[in-house]
Write a structure and sequence with these properties.
heterodimer; A: 277 residues; mainly alpha; MetI-like fold; 0% strand; disordered N terminus; B: 319 residues; alpha/beta; Rossmann fold; four-stranded antiparallel sheet; 10 strands; binds adenosine-5'-triphosphate; binds magnesium ion
Chain lengths: 277, 319
């Protein structure tokens, strides 16, 4: 075992572990769960033993209680709906614009000269920095947050779509070229499907940013939403409540990410099998 | 994998779409008229087909040179190539790796302009890509998001031909290359050899009068390869296509061709234009005749000499 290269051990290790039965489920599920409980237990123990006040660091049990009761009483639901709506709606708008701009930039060289410099210039600027301005312009309602989210989701999608539309194999271009395919046909049969894996890579980045965008927007100025509730909880020194809201956010992020992965596996089904070769 | 039948496949493949109607307007392809095809069919079924060579030039490559320049260094790939090919002829091209065979194919296909000389197809100067040349590239180049059948149908869609009429033909071609039952599979589920056979079906599905194949059987085992050679000969005999067939296998080149073009190491020149006058149709047993052996020996000698004179330097770089 020891004389094998490290990479090989890892690659060959996976299937053999699978075969060896009971050891697998312990290492894959048992161990992480054990570690989780151990961590929570010591956290709980330390907080209780040192008598740390709840407004500085609440014990895990208090956080879980706040989390469960927030859902049971329905207190989280309206705010979660608001934040989720802002994130999803802004994400959809931003990705749509990103996709369209990418297509336009790649298809029309003139547009590339006009738009692309701005894309490059804005790419590294943190778009959330515009949030205060957007709140001034569009108010404390959902509009300003949707715009912040759209803005932050737009760029990763745009940059990836451009890369995907451009990185087409010369051989595949020759294949269509030899059939005297038009520019549109090359786009439709080759460039567009070729860009889809890149498009999804952009969406995966964008979906994470969309939740961040919505929360930052709410921090700047809002009357509802999870971000707004986190600020409130902080003011009230309800740290357990803030942690519970934090868990709600991570739940939202995981749900969005999982949904996207599900759609991705169905849409760009060919990439998974390709990389295993 | 379905074995490719070598017996009685003659009537299996009508080389035209299921519907007898002409292709839709707007297509640039040329279809020999029905009368021609019917007589070819009966001839093929009856026995030896009369030699198709009409004497008309299908393809003429005149004084073609190709130099690739990138930054400071340049690669002289082809050097004053002259080849005239008559309609319906089967030409094999052999030559050491890196001598410019694939480059020549791309020039004929109009994918790049040559840096010197000119190429004419059916009396017309090649100025850009044209759809009367069917191509099997050196690698299969199948699109991973399309099924095997959809990949074979790609030329039909791009050339805007009648989709439903050609679908039956696409299926027959897949059967012919031993991929019957794999229509709905995706390319990445096929072996390398199977992918290459799908690419052959794709090049045959539209009726381009000129077919260029770049080492199409490189990824096949010896048995399948021989069977595919027999199939290619039959496809060619029935279709009357002009075929340019690039290969590394000297016996394969001799078995299939009317003429074998032997090329020198880079920069590629025509060392020899060897006429193979063995009777057709040729069977695998014909590979055992003294005449066949003589041709193979001659070509091998020529390539060996050329190799010894240098030019094996770029075996690696080409991959
Ligand atoms: N696009 C290109 N740019 C630069 N050099 C090229 C290009 N295409 C081919 N060449 C060079 O031209 C020479 C001939 O290449 P080509 O692919 O035609 O060889 P080949 O005869 O088909 O070889 P093989 O039998 O290995 O396929 C090679 O030295 C290669 O490096
Ligand atoms: Mg080649």
């Amino acid at each position: 075992m020891t004389d094998r290269p490290i990479g090989e051990v890892e690659i060959l290790g996976a299937p053999t572990e699978e075969a060896s039965g009971s050891g697998v489920s312990w290492e894959r599920f048992g161990l992480p769960i054990f570690v989780l409980f151990a961590l929570m237990g010591s956290w709980e123990g330390i907080v209780r033993f040192l008598e740390i006040p709840g407004y500085i660091l609440p014990p895990p049990t208090a956080i879980i209680r706040a989390f469960v009761s927030g859902f049971l009483t329905g207190a989280f639901i309206p705010d979660l709906a608001v934040t989720a709506f802002q994130a999803v709606f802004g994400f959809l708008i931003g990705s749509f614009i990103g996709l369209s701009l990418g297509v336009i930039i790649v298809l029309f060289p003139t547009m590339e000269r006009i738009i692309y410099p701005y894309v490059v210039a804005l790419q590294t600027v943190p778009k959330v920095a515009l949030a205060p301005l957007l709140v001034v312009w569009f108010g404390f309602g959902m509009t300003s947050k949707v715009i912040v989210v759209a803005l932050v989701s737009l760029f990763p999608v745009l940059v990836n779509v451009i890369a995907g539309l451009r990185s087409v194999d010369q051989e595949r271009l020759d294949l269509l070229g030899a059939l005297s395919a038009t520019r549109w046909q090359i786009f439709w049969y080759l460039r567009f499907p070729n860009s889809l894996p890149y498009f999804f890579a952009g969406l995966n980045t964008a979906v994470v940013l969309s939740v961040i965008g919505a929360i930052v927007g709410e921090f700047v100025g809002a009357t509802q939403g999870i971000g707004f509730r986190i600020l409130q909880a902080n003011y009230n020194l309800d740290i357990a409540g803030a942690f519970a809201l934090f868990m709600v956010l991570s739940l939202l992020g995981l749900t969005l990410h999982g949904t996207l992965k599900f759609i991705e596996r169905r849409t760009v089904f060919w990439t998974a099998t390709q990389t295993t070769h | 994998m379905n074995p490719v039948a070598t017996t009685e496949p003659r009537e299996r493949l009508p080389l035209r779409p299921a519907s007898d109607g002409p292709p839709r307007q707007g297509s640039t392809m040329t279809i020999p008229d029905e009368q021609d095809r019917k007589s070819e069919h009966s001839a093929a079924a009856g026995g030896e087909r009369p030699r198709a060579s009409s004497g008309r030039k299908s393809l003429s490559i005149r004084d073609v040179s190709m130099v690739f320049t990138r930054a400071e260094h340049s690669v002289h790939a082809l050097d004053h190539i002259d080849i005239d090919i008559e309609e319906g002829q089967f030409i094999s091209v052999v030559g050491p790796s890196g001598c410019g065979k694939s480059t020549l194919l791309k020039l004929v296909a109009g994918l790049r302009p040559p840096t010197g000389g000119e190429i004419e197809i059916l009396g017309e100067k090649v100025k850009g890509p044209r759809s009367d040349v069917g191509i099997v590239f050196q690698s299969p180049v199948l699109l991973p998001w399309r099924t095997v059948l959809q990949n074979v149908m790609l030329p039909i869609e791009v050339l805007r031909l009648d989709h439903s009429a050609y679908k039956a033909k696409a299926r027959e071609l897949l059967d012919l290359v031993g991929l019957g039952g794999f229509e709905k599979a995706y390319p990445q589920e096929l072996s390398g050899g199977m992918q290459q056979r799908a690419a052959i079906a794709r090049a045959l599905v539209y009726d381009a009068p000129i077919l260029m194949m770049d080492e199409p059987f490189g990824a096949l085992d010896a048995m399948t390869r021989e069977q595919m050679n027999v199939e290619v000969q039959q496809i060619w005999e029935r279709s009357g296509k002009t075929v340019v067939f690039i290969t590394h296998s000297i016996p394969e080149a001799v078995f299939l061709a009317d003429r074998v073009i032997v090329m020198s190491p880079r920069p590629g020149r025509v060392l020899r234009d060897l006429h193979i006058n063995m009777p057709r149709p040729r069977g695998l047993d014909d590979m055992l005749t003294p005449e066949f052996g003589e041709h193979v020996r001659e070509i091998r000698g020529m390539l060996g000499k050329a190799d010894a004179a240098g030019g094996r330097d770029d075996r690696q770089t080409n991959w």
